[in-house]
Amino acid sequence: GENVEQHPSTLSVQEGDSAVIKCTYSDSASNYFPWYKQELGKRPQLIIDIRSNVGEKKDQRIAVTLNKTAKHFSLHITETQPEDSAVYFCAASFNTNAGKSTFGDGTTLTVKP
Amino acid sequence: GAVVSQHPSWVICKSGTSVKIECRSLDFQATTMFWYRQFPKQSLMLMATSNEGSKATYEQGVEKDKFLINHASLTLSTLTVTSAHPEDSSFYICSVIVPPGNTEAFFGQGTRLTVV
Are B50 and B35 in contact (CB under 8 A)? Predict the structure, then answer.
């Protein structure tokens, strides 16, 4: 089955700096890669996603890059703000079975004011 | 998007009792729902796929007799933790995907189960 590894497990940055979280996956058949933000005790919420036919996607301060050959994808957050502090999960799935996503272990991001 | 409601948000039960958690899709009919379990500071682990009108599909290592899943209607799936033990204490969360894209997962707010 699919295996997703996520690094780092914790990340602390100063407000205004950039944050980068990286994930690798093992199943070359995976073609949908979402990123979720989860605040303490709350549900995960999708913040950005990318499909395998695209190398990069950007939404305001958030961007995701995908390298299919190397089987890794990254989340980039620029101009970080304290409200970006949360746990971020990457995931991988085959899009017709996206409910069965395999999640990374999560990254706890702390943005210091 | 999809609105997914989970009930209860938290529950405390005694060891040996059973607890039922509901997952409702409020604004569309979900033929498939997914149940995840999340330990503190850990990732979401898929437990089972709930299929409306048929048996759930359980992931390897998940005891189907302990975690009973019923998907009796297109808007409701239930997870019953039977004969709960303290090690079953966890955050249980359901999700649905919206056709036709079947990609983005929409999560319920989760249920914090504590077994004492």
Answer: yes
Q: Touching check for A108 and chain B: CB below 8 Å?
A: yes
How many Å apart are CA B103 and CA B88, to the nearest integer?
Answer: 29
* End-to-end alpha carbon distance in chain A: 41
- A54-103, pLDDT tens digit by residue? 899 999 999 999 999 999 999 999 999 999 999 999 999 886 665 678 89
Quick check: B14 and B116 in contact, CB under 8 A?
A: yes
Q: Which residue of A103, A105, A108 to mutate against B (max B Cβ within 10 Å)?
A: A103
What digits encode the pLDDT tens for the residues B20-52?
999 999 988 888 899 999 988 788 999 999 888
Give the one of B34, B93, B112 whose C-beta lies nearest to A99's C-beta: B34
Min Cα–Cα distance to chain B from A49, Å: 8
Residue B22's nearest CA partner among B38, B5, B44 is: B5
- B110/A99 Cβ within 8 A: no
